[in-house]
């Protein structure tokens, strides 16, 4: 019998990670699920649906207490579910081998406007994260909840927080395969019938969803093999863009499809677009995953993926 996995989240990232785990064919997987149709699909894939929501405290505690591996890939911003998992891991029998808990945060936590432009968060400099990230940064409250729990010494678990950058490409999971940041930016342009230029010079790192899946699997394999306390913050990026590069291609592709007027002039917008963190800066560097054998596949770049993303949004009836 394989190790048991409890995965929270089967959407764009979670579903793709779930498929990656299924492909490894060595785990017994359970997935949190609140929809009967999705439960049927999960059953057909050999995944046990755990019927409930992120706020079913007792349910989450019980699954976290008993699973060998817990992957929270549902959202970076839900504190109750993090607290439930932490409580479950506190209750886990000390006779048992430590569980593994991978929580998903995001490099949005690095988008603090007062950071100097040249500041890069590399994950071999773990102390930088705690020194430089203020408590009110995006996602930080959840990350701090985990950090404190780890430091309390009460968890029978090896814990890491993975921080994906801007994720692009089409997912590989059974349900939603659409990414978030760029599609929301596309909706924003269509709503204004003109591209919005949110601070185009600022930089973010990025990664293709397929490389993000292997990042999770590489981290998981590392946590399975290590006997020491793992580093808490794990960066998973494979590229970098200035927002301008994304904006230019979105403009061209939307005009080509008549989704915005051909003569629409892009509008300079001094704000940021909060729901996508577009027009903020987030500079990060993956070091640890490479040391642990992460094989990054050469895939299309973020700009090369935009046409395909718009096609996908049209195909699923979103545009
Ligand atoms: C990600 O961005 C950082 C900071 O600008 C840079 O040092 C790093 O090389 C970038 N990663 C890749 C793969 O380009």
Estimate percent helicity: 25-40%
How many helices does DSSP assign? 11
Q: Which strands sit side by side, in order, in the main sheet?
A: 3-2-1-4-5-7-11
> How can the largest sheet be summarized?
7 strands, parallel
List how many beta strands DSSP finds.
14
Structural class: alpha/beta
Tell me the series of helices and strands, N- to C-terminal: EHEHEHEHEEHHEEHEEHEEHEEHH
* Ligands: 2-acetamido-2-deoxy-beta-D-glucopyranose
Measured on Cα atoms, how large is the radius of gyration? 20 Å
Mean pLDDT: 96
Beginning-to-end CA distance, first to last residue: 45 Å
Task: Classify the beta-strand content into a percent band.
Answer: 15-25%
**What best-fitting shape do the alpha-carbon axes yield?**
globular
Low-confidence stretches: none
